[in-house]
User: Fold these one by one.
Assistant:
Number 1:
Amino acid sequence: MKTPALIAAIAITAAGVWGLNHSFSSGSSPRATSLKLASSSASPVLVELFTSQGCSSCPPADALAEKLAQDPSLVVVTRPVTYWDRLGWKDTLAREANTQLQRSYSSRGIPGAGVYTPQIVIDGRAGTVGSRAREVRSLVRDSAAKPHAVLKVAKRKEGGFEISTGGSNGGELSLVALTSHVSVAIGRGENGGRNVGYSNVVRAETKLVPGKNGSFHVEQGQLETKGADRYAVILRDRAEGTVRAARYL
């Protein structure tokens, strides 16, 4: 696990986590990465991976996210962060907004929170080291058992979509543009010389504004983000960022 020095006092035992996770950095695969998760595809669970091309501990978590992305009961989003760029390689997929979201999760003090990589956060409720498949599976099942809103999506004749939050008031709905798969040849840093694959990488994120009837419109032009070939919508609580619902379009 990689943790910036300026926040080394986060509420997680960094040394212990590094000891477990660093054992995967030699190229070996973590155990139990093939997950069959018993959550309802009607209300998918959001899995967000915070990762970095400059983090030697991250490739096993990137591989796990690729497996999870095949599960229809999950919405998997990869969010490369910026704070390891100083180690000799600038992450070609990183966005500062991803870093800020992770810091927001940490400031809320959710279980397993902190600013480190690799980290997986489930529904904005709890996090864990991103390569710990068994813990990820447990957190997904815990979150799937909690109430979720249902996002109803209908195609519009003029293009785009109309989205209803099913009476779930007070939340913020975002449209997330994704690239379903990216392979990066990393030239320098801790992963120098490696080709690493990333699944459902965030390219852009846009807050949607509800119309007069309370539903949201996604215009066709919003589905033309450069490099994106997949889109998802995420409904969050305003105050704390907990995810009420998520789904692919």
Number 2:
Amino acid sequence: MSALHSGDPASFAADVLAEGPPELEHVPGVASRRPTKTSAGGALIRDSTGRVLFVVPTYKAVLDVPGGMTEDDESPKAAAVREIREELGLTMSLGRLLVVDWTPRNGVWRDCHQFVFDGGVVDDAVACDPELEGVVYLTLDEAEPRIYPSLHRRLALAVAALESGSTRYAEFGREV
């Protein structure tokens, strides 16, 4: 699996070649004036009782789902797979996309497209990353006071998407 994407590397390379040479800038500076938007990939991982797996980061005061920000030329799904391997020591292929959520700028963080994929069922996950204090399995109600309200809304949509089979689009955790 390539750091660029989570699909077949040979097909991806062929797709890149089929696009032709890199696009040139016809008006100098126009590309550098475009806004920079971030993206992140995360996973809804549950245990066999249906509780959601949360990571306990050392670098912020709230819980989060396994996953993280994309690197340059990396897809959100590949970022989630990479981060899950780094954070939990698990090599997994993620299931379908459950939610795409746009979150606005928040302090030092730029606005972001957040992608949540189905991470399936994993019992007894453990933290393997020094950036984590540990992991915890909680229901969404139990997690609510320990996560951002937008993440709570996003995960509620992810659970609904999992149950319905229909991907959801949201803005700041609210389906639109």
